[in-house]
Amino acid sequence: xxxxxxxxxxxxxxxxxxxxxxAELTNYQGTGLSILEISHRSVQFTTLLAQAKQLLLQLMNxxxxxxxxxxxxxxxxxxxxxxxxxxxxxxxxxxxxxxxxWAERAMAEAKLIPDLAVEEIATSAPxxxxxxxxxxxxxxxxxxxxxxxxxxxxxxxxxxxxxxxxPLVGDLSSNFLAQxxxxxxxDLIYAGAQKNLAPAGLTxxxxxxxLLSQMPTALPAMLSYRKxxxxxxxxxxxxxxxxxxxxxxxxxxxxxxxxxxxxxxNRQKAQLIxxxxxxxxxxxxxxxxxxxxxxxxPFTTGNSALxxxxxxxxxxxxxxxxxxxxxxxGMRASLYNAMPLAGAVALRDFMLQFAKDHAxxx
Amino acid sequence: xxxxxxxxxxxxxxxxxxxxxxAELTNYQGTGLSILEISHRSVQFTTLLAQAKQLLLQLMNxxxxxxxxxxxxxxxxxxxxxxxxxxxxxxxxxxxxxxxxWAERAMAEAKLIPDLAVEEIATSAPxxxxxxxxxxxxxxxxxxxxxxxxxxxxxxxxxxxxxxxxPLVGDLSSNFLAQxxxxxxxDLIYAGAQKNLAPAGLTxxxxxxxLLSQMPTALPAMLSYRKxxxxxxxxxxxxxxxxxxxxxxxxxxxxxxxxxxxxxxNRQKAQLIxxxxxxxxxxxxxxxxxxxxxxxxPFTTGNSALxxxxxxxxxxxxxxxxxxxxxxxGMRASLYNAMPLAGAVALRDFMLQFAKDHAxxx
Lengths: 362, 362
Description:
Two copies of one chain form a homodimer.
Chain A: E1 4-5, H1 15-23, H2 43-59, E2 67-72, H3 75-87, E3 93-98, H4 101-110, E4 117-123, E5 145-148, E6 150-151, E7 156-157, E8 168-171, E9 188-192, E10 203-208, H5 209-212, H6 225-230, H7 240-255, H8 258-280, E11 296-299, H9 304-316, E12 319-320, E13 331-334, H10 341-357
Parallel strand pairs in A: 1-12, 3-4, 3-5, 5-8, 8-9
Antiparallel strand pairs in A: 2-10, 6-7, 9-10, 11-13
Helix pairs in contact in A: 2-7, 3-4, 8-10
Subcellular location (chains A, B): Cytoplasm
Function (chains A, B): Catalyzes the reversible conversion of 3-phosphohydroxypyruvate to phosphoserine and of 3-hydroxy-2-oxo-4-phosphonooxybutanoate to phosphohydroxythreonine.
Organism (chains A, B): Limosilactobacillus alvi
């Protein structure tokens, strides 16, 4: 039985990548050492770090001249703190678009920074069934505007970046390299890697180099982008294994045609599921169609017992981790880059059959 | 040719552990999923997290009633900041024993915390060729005393914990579970995992539960022990893979007889190398014998060209990563738990032969 993993993260990784990791796990590039034992000061690691940075910039259409890539730890949650600590230096005032749970978490952490004004300038609360519209008129006295581009829980995503005359910060964790943005419109991008890039334990930050020199100099080393950048992400021992897997995934993404090709496949995968939802009248998704996420699709039958039967039956059929987030209930299908089209087809077919089999129970 | 990896960290891991990681990498416990894809909310992960915590406490002779185990990210360097943020609440004054580079780094980061007095109460600077003696008389108006129990670079280690009537904090990174201490004398222990426990990207913190409730409540989530403890290290996505490998290493340590058995083997391994150093008059180690580290042995021939020949020739013989730290030059042999006795024997034999072959060049 083919297994497909629809978990929201940690999530499925490309089969080819897993096969390579397994094959060379006890002997990395003929060194006789495992990648798990390789020093972060070794030529093997510094080479793969440079390759990973270069591949990432290439995939995002960014230049090394303009952007710094950092491979950090602590997840997006630590970035909720690091971003204001490093960037909120001029106005001590930051603007957030509240598009759901993770935007709210980012705001809550920013509010813990002393002497910082945290303002919600647009919201889709409490239902979060659309992406809030962001409109700026006149000069914006904010250090930055923070966006969470995709909402893993509520299944919305931002399709068009707002035109704003202030620095743009994006938490791209759940559609990182899965949806194509003009990445150069961002001043700082961060993403937990465990959805689209690598195993849990790696956070990617891509930041404009011109900002680094304006950042405070007296922050603790592990909270300072400028100190971490000055040491090329090896201020202390970085998560070597995750960076290695990320490099393999980045190579795989290039081989698949890059971010725009991935977005096209992701649209196709998502479309298969949204079509069943819209056409059968058996499943429901509350999100405004224009704002629907490509990577995270929450849905329900409207009957929680039937939802539970769906989740259990799907699990038995090899369609794993379709249980929805506790805040929404129901089901959720996460269709990140590494989910093959065949996985979405298998889910579509299962949904159609399940709707037939259980039509009476609604 | 058998390869032995003497790197100071990331370091060698037990062969059995690497074999098991490789064998089950694409199918963890029959789930059809890789451990790299397993959710941190899955029963598979919560089970292994609980097992890892229990094994660690068992190995340290600590109880779950009294101590909390946290599996974090950011390395010891982030702990240099987190420890004072969480613990320096009463006197806003902390005491450090300066036993070398990493103690100095810990002090430097503590000094970046506003309104905190950082005092060096004992030092072995500038040579760091012994472990400073710590003596307390009278009441100590410090929030804690910070010790770096083993010095990876200078090759010293603390043999007997000081009798001090104040909370004891230990950075045990480089002799964690390799040297037996009365761990219950510590109020907080931290260790980067990449030397004795797991691949880089995991930091272990063991803290007295009674301290948690006294810690500040408004710290950023990822910098707050009490918030991280309240969510059992899964406040956000933890480094699942590293925790999994740590659990395998902890099982291996139990199978080897635990920490006191490991210390006995480590003494035996270290003794082989120190004997060559002391008896041949070809190699030198500057550390006071009573304070010599069991896990990190720096040595030199006294001739930098000959040192380079040693390092290159050893590498060709499969004895890898013997280059000393840039601060000391020369050679360094790291003999952590996972280095088998046979590795130390191979190095001893190589050192004897090299001394014979190059006796004229000194």
